[in-house]
Amino acid sequence: MNEIIRDTQSSVTHTSLDPQDWNEFRALAHRMLDETIDDIANIRARPVWQPIPDGVRAAFKADVPREASDLADVYRDFSEHVAPYATGNVHPGFMGWVHGGGTAVGMLAEMLAAGLNANLGGRDHMPIEVERQIVDWMRHLFAFPESASGIFVTGTSMANLMAVLVARTSALGTLARQYGIGNDGALLAAYTSQAAHGCVSRAMDIAGLGTDALRKIDVDADHRIDVAALRAQIAIDREVGFKPFLVVASAGTVDIGAIDDLKAIAELCREEGIWFHVDGAFGALAILSPELAPLLGGIELADSIALDFHKWGQVPYDAGFLLVRDGERHRQAFAQPAAYLRREARGLAAGAVWPCDLGPDLSRGFRALKTWFTLKTFGTDRLGAVIARSCALAKYLETRVLAEPRLELLAPVNLNIVCFRYRAADEVNREIVADIQESGVAAPSSTTLDGRFAIRAAIVNHRTDESDIDALVAAVLEFGGRRSGGVIEVEAPPLAAQSY
Predict the structure, then answer these.
(1) Is the peptide bond before 70 cis (omega within 30 degrees of 0)?
(2) Which of 155, 453, 455, 473 is 20 to 30 A from 437 via CA?
């Protein structure tokens, strides 16, 4: 036997993947950290986004690496070919989609989490207690009972899917997990607004209920779900034999940031015995701002809430979250007994409800740590002030648009999203968005409102200030002038010097 072991050792050397020279590794690691911090500290010196050159893209068609490479060479490849061509949401000029800017604190926490390499599927260890503490904090913030449960997920798309599954199990009973949704499941009907995020429809698809089972209700003049129309549709569906089981309200719609009338919807759902879920991807965290929290009145009555800490919470990607009022119903939707997941009275396998009982994942990263670091380091008061500030900047952009005859506001500014356009054809505005993105000055996105193309600015990054808003407006006017044959260079109006 010893001879076999000696033969094996002679044929395989350095089986550990740890560095052979820790001092050399440490020096390079410090350089990586220093250069990353420098990049964040000097982010304004870089373009928001830039197109990927053909040569750089082609370099990533290489074959699977069979031989080892020096870590310094791999890092050089990253520095030259990956980092310069990222999405750009760290930059204060990124206003395209609702992406948080992240923080250096969150980055360090992510590094510490990687060092622990903890699997948060279950068992008895402190990383799970960190996640449980955040669940408790969320219970408190949203006035949920002690029996409520919560879990970290990739993002609100997954959280919304899980909410659909919890509501489905609540409506059909746990046997549906074994036998399928059957005839009763085919009669289930869910409701959301025309302005809801597309992931709600996708969740219905993945849950096996079908997208046709989701009724998309018209919105009012403020882009909120029409509660009277919702009530009427529920009555119609009951009359013909359908079983209404879920309403998904929006706390911050994807296009313009509208918040549905959560109190009215909660009352309707309570009357009808329907699960009330709130998609609060970014808007739910307005609860941290005393100034904005009243807009969420009624969210405390929800059966479940989905949100993303990686948006307004400024936690690095990804850090989605689902909070469920009835923790036992949550558990019944996902818990799966297995011999290898047996819970013991003592030892590493001890513990109460494990996170794997509350979602589809057994292998789970330590997302909670970067959220824990963010909440503890900055505090909810400061984070709430950052959220309120982004809404004030949106109002500032609104004043800039309204003061400029060449621009047109296309929707009310509810929170932090401004939809507007250059007074020209849709195709001109489409080219303006691409021109601005490719210039590196700013990164707006676009949407369509009432059949009209809109330039959409979502102000989420904590680094954004008035100068970034001014740069966006100047770029829209400059490229609009080029595309429509007008003046090319435009001075910002006097409002640009005001603080808001």
Answers:
(1) no
(2) 155
Q: If you average pLDDT over residues 227-256, what whole number do you get?
A: 97
3-state per-residue secondary structure call for 354-419: CHHHCCCCCCCCCHHHHHHHHHHHHHHHHHHHHHHHHHHHHHHHHHHHHHCCCEEECCCCCCCEEE
* Mean per-residue pLDDT of the chain: 93
- The yes or no reply on domain 118-365 and CATH 2.60.40.1180 is no
Q: What are the residue ranges of helices labelled H in 1-103?
A: 2-11, 22-41, 54-59, 71-81
Residue 65 has a CB neighbour count (10 Å cut-off) of 8
- Between CA 28 and CA 71 the distance in angstroms is 9
pLDDT at 3 > cutoff 70: no
For residues 299 and 264, the answer to whether their CB atoms sit within 8 Å is no
Asked whether the beta carbons of 340 and 289 are under 8 A apart, the reply is no
* Residue positions counted in the chain: 500
CATH class of 20-49+86-102+379-500: alpha beta
Q: Residue 492: what pLDDT?
A: 39
Instruction: Specify whether the CB–CB gap between 207 and 235 falls below 8 A.
Output: no
How far apart (Å, rounded) are the C-alpha atoms in residues 238 and 435? Answer: 51
| Residue 478 three-state SS | helix
Give the pairing type, strands 417-422 and 452-458.
Answer: antiparallel
Q: Where are the domains of the chain?
A: 20-49+86-102+379-500, 118-365
